[in-house]
Amino acid sequence: MSITETSRPGTAGSAPAPRRMSERARAERRLGWWLAAPAFVVMLLVTAYPIAQAVYESLFKYRLTDPDAREFTWLTNYWVILTDGVWWRAVGVTVLITAITVAVEAVLGFALALVMHRALRVLRPLLRTAILIPYAIITVVSAFAWLYAFDINTGFATSWLSWVPGITEDTNVFGSFGSAVAVIILSEIWKTTPFISLLLLAGLAQIPNDLLEAAKVDGATWWQRLYKVTIPNMKAAIMVALLFRTLDAFRIFDNVFIMTQGAQGTEVVSFLAYRQTISRLEIGLGSAVSVLLFLSVVLISVAYIKLFRINLASARGEA
Amino acid sequence: MDERTTLRQKALWWIAGAAVLIYALFPVAWIVSLSFKSAADLGNRQFLPADAVLDNYEMILVGDAQTLFLSALRNSIGIAVIATFLAVLLSTFCAYAIARLEFPGKKVILTTALAVAIFPVISIVTPLFNLWRHIGLYDTWPGVIIPYLSLTLPISIWTLSAFFRQIPWELEQAAQVDGATTWQAFRRVIVPLATPGVFTTAIISFFIAWNDFVYGISLTSTEAARPVPAALAFFTGASQFEDPAGAIAAAAVIVTIPVVVLVLLFQRRIVSGLTQGAVKG
Amino acid sequence: MGQKGVAAGMAVAVITAVAACGADAEAPTLTWYINPDDGGQAEIAERCTQEADGQYRIETSLLPREASAQREQLARRLAANDSSIDLMSLDPPFIPEFAEAGFLAQIPSDVAGVVTEDVVQSAIDGATWKDELVAAPFWANTQILWYRKSVAEEAGLDPQQEPVTWDEIIDAAREHDAYIGVQGIRAEALTVWINALVESAGGQIITDTEVPVEDVELGLDSPAGRAAAEVVGTIGREGLGGPGLPNQDEPGAMMQFRGDRGSFMVNWPFVWAATIDAVEEGTLDEAVLDDIGWTMYPAMEPGEQPRPPYGGINIGIGAFTEHEDAALDAVQCIVAPENQAFYFVNDGNPAAHTAAYDDPEVREVFPMADVIRESLEVAAPRPQTPYYNEVSTGIQNTWHPPAAVRPDQSPETATNLILDVLRGERLL
């Protein structure tokens, strides 16, 4: 998801728009709409329509196996969810996973980007290829790989890690909350750090070399250069990468589904929504969870943009 | 800085490089190793199989799980390819308009794409499921392809409009001045310039469609449309009560092969696509 | 494609369409949704297709591994009035929900008579809802107690002669530092275990099953429920179920049982077939096989009758099928005693029909056939309610991990959660 592109606005070869719309401009406008419309309409149809439907259905008590008992209950479903510890616990676990994942990925992704950026020329294509493999691999496959590596019946990982205090070959990693969440986070980090590191790599490549050279001449150490020159100069890239990873991590589903099915208290919000609608067939309640999840994502986006003053448009160079 | 690298630095870079390689490839090596384990080996808790066998591949390609896996593979390939094609087609038009034409509403389109990209998939699965039941799209290819567009369209639009903005459109006019028709100019000058971007977008879209799990498990229920990630939950071991780890590992390896091949062939393009214009200026 | 190509293509399409129509009129193709097995159901489908001699054809379509996931798949399709579901292999606990929702076609009394004749009672109960047979008993599962003769002997127990209790098993495991094979995974298997314990202690998870959802009463918070919690909690807390207990399922328990610290295990009869296979493949020492004994499920108190778990598969007919008559014929063929016997031998899943237990081949492969049959006669079904999923999930969420189960808390917590969920006041 590279949403952060930055080319200049409408630099396209067309002439600057005159005040009064000429025939040509009008034709161009029509053509633009015609070309853009299909994609736009499809995007709206597959998201806006369903979410509107979800909002509507969330106001009902409605179970798929008992359609006759369908009943309009106003905001009862929301009240039930928001007063239930299960929801807040799922939110807590999701936030925990998101926070750790994003924090580790930011550091690790930056380190990977630095290695790729400055590695010997012979190494660069090799490293880039290697790093793309976790990015491109199916999340479910990654989840299974980590599951079976740590599973008490099939895994080698606990015996390899038995030098760590508290871990023995017979440690049941998926038998308690802490270790189960740790492996879920590991899988998530492994799979998605490459995305962050590639975005950061692009950011690194944009830093003018003479700035760094100048800092070097001034006697700045490697760390000083990193903190004073490199990072400030790629702040926009870092923030945008973090925003997207945060939203992505908050929607975590596949890893939890495969590894624990929410057991050991590892339930996350997406999984909670899935269980209400798909497993319990409680369409009303599940829709309400879905709507709340959607609102959470919106809230996070707004918070990021306000707090860190990310201007997505400016990141694209359009403001 | 290459010219100033000392031997020591060189060694350090090789070590760092090796660390990155291990990081990226170790879990893949493990799932490959697992897929070659025999039923007896699955429980030995060693990294490598005691005796590498093809049992698991046999099971999913010619054995009991054949219909399950091969139909899922067919669905995955068909659905991902069609979803990619449609996304690229629609987004090429859209991105062309955004990059090339002046019209109000560009910002709305890009913002919509952004909003769709951050949309929690699970939130729309239930309403889609209900709608699909009513109009007969549940458990069909189109029933999966259409929602996949919500995953592939936004990124395609963004990546492609970034690519297209970098095309020197003046060349087209230059060609026209040289006597080419509009269409000729477009085909001879612009198409070759745009193709790499379109191609890269297609690869990235394909990865995303190939990766999907939520739609796959929620909107399908038979071999008619179930893609591979969803089908993995259906595997059993040699008998119904045995651990399905081997079969799952073998299937996982097979569905990983296409992405590895794409990565090996097009790594440079994919990187440039992912980071296209990400932080320029 | 040129003009000719198009024409040829259309001709082919027309011909296939005609052919399909013709076939349809003569022999409807029935789709049978089956749970994963060792190929027995596919083979039976084949056999019945042969036997029908052109009257109908049966095709199988696979459901997921987990029982709850099977229910999800079927319920979602049936809620959409899907006519492509002709036959389905149903896990008994979900039958009331399907029957109540009108997902199952009626079974006429003459057919009902045929498919229940000489069938073990628990299987008939499992296929019945509100006094009507709504599915055909196909195979009936029950758990028995498997033990390592060497361990039992050392512990001074003779399960063959003297029925054992959970307390005795726990003591023996404690003393000999051995693992008890039980299913502690947060899944249907855990409910199976808990239900058997509660029933064996003379209780019931749901006391009256056919009342409206608001009036459901739970029997968990009772002496029987607390006794069950005592067993689960003790095994969990003292690590007697092995380190993997919180995610141990049936195959996991079997693997542990075959290992060095195996002692006693409650599990389905597939264990026997799978263990013989393992010996034949050379992955297991024959000495282990020879060391395995079997007897009735453990009792809660000495001298009391245990109520082992009842499971299995019954065949339901989709309410929206377009081929009801053919489906009814097919059901009778599928559950025919000889097919049940075949399935018993081939897949290791015990028959619902008593005649299968006298089948010489069955008796040869399953020397414990009599114990299984005896167990089936007293087996207790899981609560029969249209809200089974809520009840089972509620129990799984509150009685897990086993080490956290407390007699004075868990039954009450589970009761409150399930009742709140049923009233729509809480999430699950």
Topology:
The complex is a heterotrimer of chains A (319), B (281) and C (428).
Chain A: H1 23-57, E1 60-61, E2 71-72, H2 76-82, H3 85-118, H4 124-136, H5 139-150, H6 157-160, H7 177-205, H8 209-217, H9 222-233, H10 235-250, H11 254-259, H12 269-279, H13 283-307, H14 312-315
Antiparallel strand pairs in A: 1-2
Helix pairs in contact in A: 1-13, 3-7, 3-10, 4-7, 5-7, 7-10, 8-9, 10-13, 12-13
Chain B: H1 7-35, H2 55-61, H3 66-100, H4 106-117, H5 121-135, H6 141-165, H7 170-177, H8 182-211, H9 214-218, H10 228-231, H11 245-274
Helix pairs in contact in B: 1-11, 2-3, 2-11, 3-6, 3-8, 4-6, 6-8, 7-8, 8-11
Chain C: H1 3-26, E1 29-34, H2 40-52, E2 57-62, H3 67-79, E3 87-90, H4 95-100, H5 109-116, H6 121-126, E4 128-129, E5 132-133, E6 136-142, E7 144-148, H7 149-154, H8 166-176, E8 179-181, H9 188-200, H10 223-237, H11 250-258, E9 262-267, H12 270-281, H13 286-290, E10 292-295, E11 310-317, H14 324-334, H15 337-347, H16 360-365, H17 369-378, H18 388-398, H19 410-422
Parallel strand pairs in C: 1-2, 1-3, 8-9
Antiparallel strand pairs in C: 3-11, 4-5, 6-11, 7-9, 7-10
What does this protein look like?
The complex is a heterotrimer of chains A (319), B (281) and C (428). Chain A has 319 residues and is an all-alpha fold. In chain A, 68% of the residues lie in helices and 1% in strands. Chain A has helices spanning 23-57, 76-82, 85-118, 124-136, 139-150, 157-160, 177-205, 209-217, 222-233, 235-250, 254-259, 269-279, 283-307, 312-315; strands at 60-61, 71-72. Chain A starts with 22 loop residues before the first helix and ends with a helix. Chain B has 281 residues and is mainly α. Chain B has a domain at 66-234: MetI-like fold. The longest helix of chain B has 35 residues, at 66-100. Chain B is globular, with a radius of gyration of 23 Å. Chain C has helices at residues 3-26, 40-52, 67-79, 95-100, 109-116, 121-126, 149-154, 166-176, 188-200, 223-237, 250-258, 270-281, 286-290, 324-334, 337-347, 360-365, 369-378, 388-398, 410-422, and strands at 29-34, 57-62, 87-90, 128-129, 132-133, 136-142, 144-148, 179-181, 262-267, 292-295, 310-317. Chain C has a five-stranded mixed sheet with strand order 2-1-3-11-6. Mean pLDDT of chain C is 87; it is low at 1-24. Chains in contact: A-B, A-C, B-C. The interface between A and B is large, with 117 and 114 residues.
